[in-house]
């Protein structure tokens, strides 16, 4: 089995485990069991009827911005721990919305590369909508304002709002401009992902921004054996995240998909711990 097939299997299992209550999609009931006390590693809406865990971004906004509590040590510590251990491996393997983006990118439409400066958009979203606005909202009330979830998150619209509107006719009467705005954003993101590989991950996702900042120190990551490299450029050409793995294997954009590892004719790239040779970890 190729590395890519194994990755897809892990993605699918992760999506199923974090959305175990599948039958709730047909009833509109939201799971509120003990699993919601814990965060999923990837972006997965709390309000999704099938979700069995909380979204780390939503939790960080709500708890981190709650008056009297300061920054939530559990949520921030959870994200920091995963980031230090795996970096954006979480994005490439454990995020349900990442799997959704990859699947719709397979649709037969013309493909483009993202305009490079747009990769900094996710850091603006992180600072403004995930950190600053919730703290500002807490100064006027007892809880933080979940600005990213409320005004931006397309995963929340797709996984939470749409299923609830389909199963609860009474909710449709409350639909207004906010839903219209978020549904428009969802359409833009879907079209963007059809054309650009993981458009949302590259340009908007604040969770990916946090994990990406820790890529350079993560224990598991993409490694480069310079003595084996012949500068053929194969890895750069095949990378779906539009980076040069040989020049910067610890790039904040790398989701450790392994495509460059499989493509490298000289085995100069490998996934694993620093100093651990590719032959000890992964056989092509």
Describe this structure in words.
With 284 residues, the protein is mainly alpha-helical. 49% of the residues lie in helices and 3% in strands. A two-stranded antiparallel sheet has the order 1-2. The N and C termini lie close together (10 Å). Mean pLDDT is 90; it is low at 279-284.
Biggest sheet strand order reads: 1-2
| Uncertain parts | 279-284
Silhouette: globular
Give the strand tally: 2
- By secondary-structure content and strand pairing, the structural class works out as mainly alpha
Q: Average the pLDDT over all residues and give the rounded result.
A: 90
Rg of Cα set? 19 Å
How is the biggest beta sheet arranged? 2 strands, antiparallel
The sequence of SSEs as H and E is: HHHHHHHHHHHHEHHEH
Beta-strand proportion: under 5%
Quick structural summary:
With 284 residues, the chain is mainly α.
Question: What is the strand and helix layout of this fold?
Answer:
Layout: H1 3-17, H2 24-27, H3 56-64, H4 73-86, H5 89-93, H6 96-105, H7 121-138, H8 147-151, H9 154-167, H10 177-195, H11 199-203, H12 206-213, E1 221-224, H13 234-238, H14 259-263, E2 269-272, H15 278-281
Antiparallel strand pairs: 1-2
Please name the defining characteristics of this protein.
single chain; mainly alpha; two-stranded antiparallel sheet; 2 strands; globular; disordered C terminus
């Amino acid at each position: 089995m190729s590395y890519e097939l194994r990755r897809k299997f892990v993605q699918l299992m992760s999506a199923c485990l974090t959305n175990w209550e599948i039958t709730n999609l047909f009833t509109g009931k939201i799971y509120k069991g003990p699993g919601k006390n814990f965060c999923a590693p990837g972006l997965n809406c709390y309000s999704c009827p099938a979700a069995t865990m909380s979204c780390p971004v939503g939790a960080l906004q709500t708890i981190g911005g709650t008056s009297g509590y300061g920054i939530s040590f559990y949520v921030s510590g959870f994200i920091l721990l995963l980031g230090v251990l795996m970096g954006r491996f979480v994005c490439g393997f454990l995020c349900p919305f990442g799997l959704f983006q990859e699947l719709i990118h397979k649709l037969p439409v013309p493909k483009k590369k993202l305009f490079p400066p747009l990769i900094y958009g996710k850091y603006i979203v992180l600072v403004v909508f995930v950190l600053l606005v919730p703290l500002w909202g807490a100064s006027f009330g007892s809880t933080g304002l979940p600005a990213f979830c409320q005004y931006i998150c397309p995963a929340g619209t797709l996984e939470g709002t749409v299923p609830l509107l389909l199963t609860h006719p009474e909710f449709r009467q409350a639909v207004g401009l906010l839903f219209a705005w978020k549904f428009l954003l969802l359409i833009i993101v879907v079209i963007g992902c059809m054309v650009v590989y993981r458009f949302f991950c590259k340009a908007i996702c604040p969770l990916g921004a946090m994990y990406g900042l820790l890529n350079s120190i993560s224990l598991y990551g993409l490694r480069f054996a310079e003595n084996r490299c012949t500068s053929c450029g194969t890895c750069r050409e095949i990378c779906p995240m539009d980076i040069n793995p040989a020049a910067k294997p610890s790039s904040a954009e790398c989701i450790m998909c392994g495509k460059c590892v499989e493509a490298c004719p000289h085995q100069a790239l490998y996934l694993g711990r620093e100093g651990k040779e590719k032959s000890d970890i992964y056989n092509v």
